[in-house]
Amino acid sequence: MTAVPLPFIAPMLASPGTLPPAAQDERWAYETKQDGQRVMVYLPGDGSVLLRARSGEDITAAYPELRPLGGALGTTPVVLDGEVLALDDRGRADFQLLQSRMGLAHAPARAARRAAQVPVHLVLFDVPYLEESLVRLPYVQRRARLEELGPAGPYWSTPRAVTGHGAEALAATREHGLEGLVCKRLDSVYEPGVRSRAWIKIRNMRAEDVIVGGWLPGKGRLSGLPGAVLVGQRDTAGRLRYVGGVGTGWSEAERRELARLLGDAASSRCPFDPAPRVPDARWVRPRWVGEVNYSTRTRAGLLRQPSWLRLRPDLTPEESAADLPEGFG
Fold first, then answer.
1. Parent domain of 152
2. Residues of the signal sequence (predicted)?
């Protein structure tokens, strides 16, 4: 078998947004948003496989269990777009698990050992090249070509896309605890390296109350103001457990008001139990409750991608509700 030279194709990116208007629903396809590492898969038709990260870096050696994909499609030269996932015991993508597999492209022996412990699964959702460039074809035709190709195996698959029914699809991702939804216009061409409005990503966010126990000084234009607040939640034993730092979500006026409140509550004692290792932390008495958005939690109970929503002066720390993971604390 002879390798066919393949063009470098940067992945097309989705823009954050909301569901398309109901009147346009049938013009869009809906795919589950995956919580993994984006990859472009190059199969030159000689049995080999090359995986490139979104940056263009060759990460093939990090995922040895995906090597058989090189021969799965025979001699057909193809470039596939997809995402590498690590699945938890419920079959859901777990980015924290995946982190133990990432960064091992230059350590193949370690990658092989980790593959035996935490195998990955590659989901494929586009084909910008199949014997020739398909980037000018509309999504609906590329998707049909991908499904005709039928890449499926022990460590890779092509999840179904749904046309129309966007509201129902989004509700289903929330019901099953999935990261979100990607909406793709049926007539959209593939735009390499472009963050396009023809693809819209919707991340399911959760909102919870947290207790402010500290802060980090801001830098640059935020000098003299809090750059982030350190927050916690009560566990079943009543201890204030650290759940992360929140550095976004305020207007300048809100940040200044927050600086005043934090100054009034300054303390030399860390209120979290156990005390987190956070360099340059400033501690405060835990008297203020806030509401934050976040996507998911890590296995240690920390909030991922938290953003400040509002201060809750109507709640005392004793009244704030928490949704700590089972066994936390």
1. 13-203
2. none
